Please model this.
Amino acid sequence: MSFGQLQNLKSEDYDVLFEGVFCKFSINAFWFYDNDTCHINYIKTIAKLICPGGWAWIAPWNGVPKQAELSEADIERVLNIQSKTFKDLGFAAVNLTKELTLRYGVHGNVANRALFTLNIKLPESLRDCGSL
Model:
């Protein structure tokens, strides 16, 4: 197994599947703003790490890189790819309120307030949030 940059994650580097995956502000949709296929494959790689029946709680830090000079349409496209891919893989996709980002410690200068979960019963406060 090798260690390095999280954006270079490869499921084949691990000889086990994980019961749970917890990511708090550790992935960013904009790592792949210029390559939708890599973006989709990266999310699939995360999902491949989870054993059948396993869980995930992923709150990405989707900060837009200034040097990318992305339009609003580009930003929306990248965020939609992230959301659609997680949902296609069976994840729930929640748009947190600003108040809830403070409660869960995932607030900051980001393009959205996404939370993706798998096999986790969400508390009432999260079920009331809009979906992505």
User: Anything to note?
Assistant: Residues 34-62+78-128 form one domain. Strands lie at 18-24, 50-59, 92-95, 114-118, 130-131. The helical segments are 36-48, 72-88, 98-104, 124-127.
